From TrEMBL:
The active site is at 28 (phosphocysteine intermediate). Keywords: Cell membrane, Kinase, Membrane, Phosphotransferase system, Sugar transport, Transferase, Transmembrane, Transmembrane helix, Transport. It comes from the Bacteria. This is PTS beta-glucoside transporter subunit IIABC. Coiled coil: none annotated. InterPro entries: Glu_permease_IIB, PTrfase_EIIB_Cys, PTS_EIIC, PTS_EIIC_1, PTS_IIB_1, PTS_Sugar-Specific_Components. CDD domains: PTS_IIB_glc.
Amino acid sequence: MKKNYDALARQILDQVGGHENVGNVMHCYTRLRINLKDRGLANIEELEKLDIIGTQFAGEQLQIIIGNEVNEVYNAFINLMGMKKEKVIEEKPNRDIPRKQHTIRSVIVAMIDGIVGCMVPILPMLIASGILKAIVLLIEKFGLATAESSTIIMLSFVADSAFYFMPVIIGGFAAKKFGANIALGSMLGAALIHPDFVSLVTEGTSLTIFGLPIYSATYSSSVVPIILSVWVMSYIEKFISRYSPKSLRALIEPVLTIIIMIPLTFSLLAPLGAMFSVGFANALTWFYGTFGMIAVAIFCAIIPWVVMLGMHVGTVPISISSIAATGIDKIMMPAFLISNFAQGAACLAVGIKAKKADLKSLAFSSAFSNVVPGISEPGMYGVTLRYKTPMWGSMIGAASGGLYFGITGVGAFSFLPPNIFALAGYVGSGEYSNNLLNTIIGIAIGMVVAFVATMFMYKPKMN
């Protein structure tokens, strides 16, 4: 029976505190992400009774796990909000709600929420870029065209454009996320990769603005510098807007905002973001270099918990930075890939051993969902986590496959969703000519171990 998405959207809206309690809403591959003004108004107990997989909070953001049909529910929810003629929802503070104290946890959660809000909208672009890169590799691998072919050149630069112009694109979405002017956010991103600025930096020319030194760095393919800059810009823009004469606001607000943001961005914020990105990448490199295959195995095992905390989208900038800097991601993308396949194998084992027909159906469909479209939440919340031992089985399998990944240095050359089609992004050449073969072997190890471990540990009588 086809699900009534409009009815489900209405039920969700009623249980999250109504229209007035919704700040904004977005979605990833499986979750409806609603920023609430007061999380205390959300009736989680009633929400859990609806036709959804589960719920969880990340700060003030309520994440409603829908599964593969999240896009339909999201569209219905947005249409429902549109009936109120508020397509663009302003996050105005509720004065009746007491101001909450900031803690280290709340600050970290807010940072993750900010990054996720900026990254989720660009995932289709990254996927398209990754698939194009994979197509180019396959065409060249099978000798269908040479690197000098006009078709290859066109496909390559279109795919690369997603990464090169990333600050421009993220600048616009970051502005939307933080309530700033979208055009100004994009303009700030464009300034960071302007050809003249890139040339001057490459030539080692010393630059200043209003007497302040400008940090020499290139920002193409970067994420954190523009997000940090636009976040600060949102406050400056609102401050200028508040104190500008209404008759001159359209002129004063954009000009003053950009003039103030030029030194802030180029002398302070973008360099800080770049240093943070480099520092994190160096820390990850150190972790990988120090612990090697053990580091990969551990990360592969804990991926389900990263997903459960809603932090999986937050790992996208790390993968992007790694691919942009070195051409390969040996931790993030491989870990998500092996984790999904191991969870699929664990679900398959549950489906075989389960006594109840409805659980068999859920387990088998979840196994398919994990491997083919790469959606792990239905199986994770409906099977592995629910019955505990399958989760342990999948983690043991993922760690085993991850250990092989670490030994052989498996890595992803493109950003692709962790499913069976992502294997195209593991086709390498030269020193990585065996990368795809090792990827398949690692997946096979992970799935076999996860299947056997789950068959051994899972007891149907526990249902």
